[in-house]
């Protein structure tokens, strides 16, 4: 892959002329005195240099910059990877734009607000957990508790300036066909100019296209060489799009992902999805790692244990993480931070749809994403069981997802309660071996007996969809205790169940994994979870990413995961 893609914060739509605004900013929060903060780390993180763990209702970032000479004469956009969760941006005292949503990117044309010499940018942020925004696993209490963790306030992904010609490309979508050995490309622009498209593999041109582009075009390129994107083999085609004076670098993977009957097929071959839950938390950075190398390191840890993918849980992950998945041939369920939303009313529906639309559009081209999972466990109000969910919320999100991307399977809501339609009937089960086996036996007969899988009275039921055990495990090993800090409420680490010694844990893991892999009706599983997070200590690694078990124990877990699945025979 070229160096421009390798270094860009949005590798699916990369340009050469960018200028990072990461680093030292000033910040004022909760009316306190001004202090320094290191961007792009949230206020709560140690890496930010602030590390304040209490509630932060508002904060204001500020810094100055001088526009680089090579960016002068073009349109200049100010770009944000993610800001939690309501942002208003000012450049030289004038409002440049704003955005609502903690996880999705936004950008604004600031050309006409810039001045010679020093420019001043301010970002006014409001972090609101009270009006039921999508907030994922961020704690709504003062401290972390249960499966809710340290909050993330403010800028937590990169900030940069990007210069583009007056007439430029605005979007690209790839529709690869492994069966046909071709790719359909859709491009959009803000004007009219000559378009040239090159597709390369290993530096060799394998497809070209040239035509006049007037705002939008769609064309299909047969590929001279066919290299499939497969599990563990992330072969990627590079794409160079030249539109007038604008040049955009992107890539795609040649793969087909679908369900046929009860099986998940990748390029027409049955593949059992051996997923592990990854929640994207880091001890010092909360939502943001100390370096991008930690993305690849977490993927490698999962692969070494025999997993071929991850369910990215209750958070929209950094595009750079997905880029690493693309390069590794690592399967992903693309999920959103749906917790925090009131499912018993449609009042939050519009806000959620807006954010989810931005998420799908941002990640559409990543070959690693094989399933969309917008919602998780929509059981109504967690603190008031009299407020049961409105099924129209679930049904509406599924319909919107399929309209945005008809090419991928969609789980309407992972773990229940399912709505009127889903492409996968998945379920969660943290019960012990005997109960899990009984329930899986019933599921193999089409008799679902999983907690909250369908809500009584809604008329929904299992209709023969492919099945996936998308959460199981969650076993705490060793019964460790943790030191109570400002950010953690409990003093005892917990899991859904526990094991007191390595042989007990690993033996149970082997037995359970091989049980699950033996069901022909199952298309995959997802083990909870890859690493501990704060007080929830049921990972296979510690929060600091240290192995919990001996080399022999980790090898036994790997071998159990790599057992051939009944669906793969």
Summary tags:
seven-stranded parallel beta sheet; six-stranded antiparallel beta sheet; GH; 569 residues; Glyco_hydro_2_cat; alpha+beta; hydrolase activity, hydrolyzing O-glycosyl compounds; hydrolase; globular; 29 strands
Please specify the SSE layout and strand pairing:
Layout: H1 3-7, E1 18-20, E2 23-29, E3 35-39, E4 58-66, E5 75-80, E6 83-84, E7 86-91, E8 94-100, E9 106-109, E10 118-126, E11 154-155, E12 159-164, E13 169-177, E14 182-201, E15 204-222, E16 237-243, E17 246-252, E18 257-260, E19 263-266, E20 269-270, E21 273-278, H2 293-304, E22 309-312, H3 319-328, E23 331-335, H4 349-363, E24 369-373, H5 391-404, E25 425-428, H6 433-444, E26 467-473, E27 475-477, E28 497-499, H7 502-517, E29 522-528, H8 551-561
Parallel strand pairs: 21-22, 21-29, 22-23, 23-24, 25-26, 26-29, 27-28
Antiparallel strand pairs: 1-12, 2-3, 2-4, 4-10, 5-9, 5-12, 6-11, 7-8, 7-10, 13-14, 14-15, 14-16, 16-17, 18-19, 19-20
Helix pairs in contact: 4-5, 7-8
Keywords: Hydrolase
Domain Beta-mannosidase-like galactose-binding: 60-140
Protein name: Beta-galactosidase
